[in-house]
From TrEMBL:
The keyword Cytoplasm does not apply. Residues 25-345 form the Aminotransferase class I/classII large domain. Its EC number is 2.6.1.9. The gene is hisC. It comes from Marinobacter adhaerens. Pathway: Amino-acid biosynthesis; L-histidine biosynthesis; L-histidine from 5-phospho-alpha-D-ribose 1-diphosphate: step 7/9. Its cofactor is pyridoxal 5'-phosphate. PROSITE patterns: AA_TRANSFER_CLASS_2 (PS00599). Coiled coil: none annotated. Keywords: Amino-acid biosynthesis, Aminotransferase, Histidine biosynthesis, Pyridoxal phosphate, Transferase. This is Histidinol-phosphate aminotransferase.
Amino acid sequence: MSKFWSPQVKELVPYVPGEQPKIPNLVKLNTNENPYGPSPKVIAAIQAELNDSLRLYPDPEGDTLRQTLADYHSVKPEQVFLGNGSDEVLAHLFYALFQHDQPILYPDITYSFYPVYCGLYNVEGKAVPLTDSFEINPEDYTQPNGGIIFPNPNAPTGRYMGLEYIETILQANPERVVVVDEAYIDFGGETAIKLVDLYPNLLVTQTLSKARSLAGLRVGFAIGHPDLIEALNRVKNSFNSYPLDRLALAGAKAAYEDEEWFRKSCEGVISERERVTQSLEGLGFEVLPSKANFVFARHTEKSGEDLAQGLREQGIIVRHFNKPRISEFLRITIGTAEQNDALIRGFQSL
Ligand SMILES: *Cc1c(COP(=O)(O)O)cnc(C)c1O
């Protein structure tokens, strides 16, 4: 705290990202990065961009990448908004699209950035409890609200909800924007992007950080009705006209031109996820059904905190949230087969 701080900054409660320790040979299963790495075509495209053109500003609207994403998802370019990671897209939509007359709704157990953006933009948030089996009940989202946001699959639970349930929420809220945060959709779910032409109140966000293995490049996007995209553009152009640099624009485009790499890496994560789930169940864990690149699991006898600490002493990091309802759970990112083997051996020794 300092006398130089604005009153707003004094009140802020920032997000705490998973740690990025600088320890070699760490088995790092705490931030849901993709273990397989980006396509070599992405690396080549970024290297090809390393030239004198870096003295020039990038395309402020990222037209080429927006066209690529529009073609990929069978929408129009004016339905696509780009951001410096999907976190930036989320920040802008909290400002651009959520109303202040009622609280916005999100699950009680979900991405913890949502309440942080509420604090930043002075939007009231209301946490709606998940069911006892950690599922979203669409009926709970029919109450008056200023907007709705949830990830599908949800984080950190990994639980996925079919599009028919999302349609129930959309139909119950025709006057409010419903945001589906699809950071993990490519690991077995079906995207709600196919609903955007039916529902002008639907905005879907995705990221290249997880399934496309580009967390370090910082690219995310939203797809929805052109009116929603225009609102996001108004905020973006009042904040930073050039959120994506030349390297990010080139690398992201190339990521969508290597479908084979993408498919193989998702398949690898999914098959390892099933293997890890079975091993954990064999060790006495309850594992929630996951369609993400992580599993959320609690041991029937051992404490989540002790297990996380015990793994850490062996150079294996997973995420533990010291929060109500989930303090016995661990969120474990699916790693390479070797990392997952190390994880299982680590648990066996505890
Ligand atoms: C990882 C994640 C994001 C943010 O991803 P970016 O790296 O900022 O694109 C957004 N939502 C959820 C639920 C996530 O887990």
